[in-house]
Write a structure and sequence with these properties.
The protein is an alpha/beta fold. It contains 17 helices and 21 strands. The structure holds threonylcarbamoyladenylate (TXA) and magnesium ion.
């Protein structure tokens, strides 16, 4: 079948509108723009035309369709009653992204709502959609115009990608403004029930009709064998070809997760401004606090990432409130309910002798996991670790004992004698330390609410950017001197050399979110919690 493409930007394009209306009246299929997503329309009163929608989309035949009208009054023939609450919702939100389910009348063929006594009705606000419905003179059944299972189309090109050659016409009316499908509410239950969140929020609905219930399928996976109030909810949905994962947590922990598990073909779908802070390929789907923008971009970007060949997509979790509920609802389905919860990651740092360990011990008492990077640094150069052959390559055979294990003194002598040596050493050990620390965090992420990375040189490491809070421990210089002389049995001169090799206190304070004074006596940790 040859698919005719119409470009209709304005309702004064009467010739084109009439041509599309005729295709629909004659039982044909036409994809039309709406403010939510593109719809695949057919005459709702013609069972054969309706059946052909299911065929073109590859849609399971028990998944009912929404009937679209151009004026409120057109609902009366379709339903057996139009209760006050429905009328109030229609008055408040039509034309617009709201679908209302009511008991159906006999003129609605069973093909539209298989096995149901109800029908879903919506009056879209897109002027071209309304003009086409009006010109057709019949209500139009229209699901989203994607191949079943794929993300819904928000641009004519998406429809062309999925439907070219399978339907009679595609109307290009520009980008859909909302970007996710309409809110679906049923008034065929005792208490009105939200079946699918969309551009009209639960708060907006409640402000008009009072209490509504939210169907459990909105946020959670239906248990095996459960009957879906909205049959569409039970199907795999909105899925790009890539595997989608939602990461719950703040940006630093998101960065930690995606960078630590990085593979070829990975993409991050993040919030505006975060793209440039990530070392994996990243696209923003909107500002963190703007769910409307996220909704507008989501489906289009999922398709875009597929076309770039993405294998896995890690998504920053949207705040599931307001329109964000719709964004989250679509994303968890796109992700097949794979949500990875990341703990918080804090950094603990400070000059030698400042008393980090005392603070660390207190944090452990809270049930937090402290990762001591001095221990990790030792671990990553153990015999058999991948860092050891690299050190040997750079610093020579004689940094190893005859048994192949590391001779620390020999290495220190070589590496610390020049700045270049120190840098070379760090360029081998730091990535290895980061890898090991993130491996521990991700491996045990479900066991602790907070991980604390304890590292004197935290700010020089990539791990610094994984910390949502940096705790700096400070103490007066004489206190620190005394501590390290006692702790490490060294001379005052040696202690001073060590202290001078580190950045000064001012520097540490400048990177701190929280400063803990630890001069002995009590420590006040209240700012951490
Ligand atoms: O924004 C939209 O609603 C778009 C545009 C094209 O208008 N249409 C759309 O249609 O999203 P579709 O078919 O992709 O989604 C319709 C949803 C499905 O989840 C379906 O199960 C539910 O509405 N639905 C339709 N009739 C129903 C009924 N009588 N009872 C319960 N759920 C119904
Ligand atoms: Mg759909």
């Amino acid at each position: 079948m040859k698919t005719q493409i119409f470009k209709i930007n304005h309702i004064n394009q009467n010739e084109e509108i009439q041509a599309v209306a005729k295709i629909l009246r004659d039982g044909g299929l036409a994809a039309i723009p709406t403010e939510t997503v593109y719809g695949l329309a057919a005459n709702a009163l013609n069972p054969d035309a309706v059946n052909s929608i299911f065929k073109a989309k590859g849609r399971p035949n028990d998944n009912p369709l929404i009937v679209h009208i151009s004026e409120i009054d057109e609902i009366y023939p379709l339903v057996t009653s139009f209760p006050d609450k429905a009328k109030a919702l229609a008055d408040a939100f039509w034309p617009g992204p709201l679908t209302i389910i009511l008991p159906k009348s006999d003129i609605v063929p069973k093909e539209v709502c298989p096995r149901l006594e109800t029908v879903a009705v919506r009056m879209p606000s897109h002027p071209v959609a309304r003009a086409i419905i009006k010109a057709s003179g019949v209500p139009l059944a229209a699901p989203s115009a994607n191949s079943s299972g794929l993300p819904s189309p928000t641009k004519a090109q998406h429809v062309i990608d999925d439907m070219n050659g399978k339907i009679h016409a595609i109307v290009d009316g520009g980008e859909s403004s909302v970007g996710v499908e309409s809110t679906v509410i049923t008034l065929a239950t005792d208490v009105p029930r939200l079946l699918r969140p969309g551009g009209i929020t639960p708060e907006q609905l409640e402000s008009v009709i009072g209490e509504i219930e939210i169907d459990p399928a909105v946020l959670d996976e239906l248990p095996e064998g459960a009957v879906a109030a909205s049959p569409g909810m039970k199907y795999k949905h909105y899925s790009p070809k890539a595997q989608v994962y939602i990461i719950k947590g703040d940006f630093p922990s998101f960065k930690c997760y995606v960078e630590a598990s990085k593979q070829e073909g990975d993409y991050a779908l993040c919030f505006s401004g975060e793209e440039e802070k990530l070392t994996v390929s990243a696209i923003s789907y909107g500002k963190e606090n703007c769910p409307e923008e996220q909704a507008h971009n989501l489906f289009s970007l999922l398709r875009e990432l597929d076309s770039r060949g993405a294998k896995r997509i890690f998504v920053r979790r949207p705040d599931p409130h307001g329109v964000g509920l719709a964004v989250y609802n679509r994303l968890i389905r796109a992700a097949a309910f794979r949500v990875i919860e990341m703990p918080k990651i804090y950094g603990l740092t400070g000059q030698t002798g400042a008393g980090k360990t005392t603070v660390a011990n207190e944090l452990v008492k809270k049930g937090w996991q402290v990762i001591d990077c001095d221990l990790v640094a030792r671990k990553v150069v153990e015999k058999g670790s991948p860092a050891l052959p690299k050190l040997k390559e750079v610093f020579g055979e004689d940094i190893l004992f005859p048994d192949g294990s590391l001779n620390r003194k020999a290495l220190a002598k070589k590496a610390f004698s020049t700045e270049e040596g120190r840098q070379k050493l760090n360029s081998i050990t730091h990535p290895a330390i980061t890898k090991e620390v993130t491996r521990q965090i991700i491996g045990e992420k479900d066991k602790f609410p907070v991980f604390v990375i304890d590292a004197a040189l935290l700010s020089k490491s990539e791990m610094y950017h994984y910390c949502s809070k940096v705790i700096v421990v400070v103490a007066k210089e004489d206190v620190r001197l005394k501590r390290i002389i006692e702790r490490d049995s060294i001379t005052p001169e040696q202690a001073i050399t060590r202290i001078n090799a580190q950045p000064d206190e001012q520097y540490y304070r400048s990177i701190a979110d929280v400063v803990i004074e630890n001069n002995g006596g009590g420590i006040d940790l209240s700012d951490i919690f």
